[in-house]
Design brief:
Elements lengths: L2 E7 L5 H14 L4 E5 L6 H10 L4 H23 L6 E5 L12 H12 L6 E5 L2 H9 L11 H11 L7 E4 L4 H14 L2
Parallel strand pairs: 1-3, 1-4, 2-3, 4-5
Length: 190
Amino acid sequence: MNKFIVIDGLDGSGKDTQVHLIAEMYEKQGRSVVVRSHPCNDNKFGRKSKQALLKKGKLNHIIATVNFGLDAIRSVHMYYYNRDVDVLIFSRYILAVMYLPNVVNTIVYKIVAFVLPTSDCMFFLDITPEESLKRIGSRDEDEEMFENIDSLRKNRLRSQKFTYNWNVVPADGAPEEISKQIIAKCLETD
């Protein structure tokens, strides 16, 4: 694997849209691209995380976060060291630890960021909670536990203590404009 890209952000920030645009650009260059959108449906950890996200309560909160982490670790194990993959793109990754209780989340983040691979192409799509909620409301999907204005405000504020070494991209605008910034940074580091 030559290139590792991570796109993260609040719900509704456009992560999957940006992942698709980046993957398309690299595929047009003839590169082998693998995309992993966590939590994934192709394994028990991802499915358990998604199931817990559709429920309420602290226990489901922890179940969702722990299984999400195991799903992401599984993806790293399967694809990060795979020589047949030129570009590996993750939608959601280590920032999921911000959903753990305060203090614990900071400690876990430092450990996870030290142990798991990182890159110069880790992007946090910084969307306002109001725009996030508007986008979430336009989807035809079940509401997850963090998809309400109070959680979005709290988690946007929380994200600031973890994204100090990330490329933070304002994400309220048009997908094409956001993509230009991300792709420029990706190409700069190729």
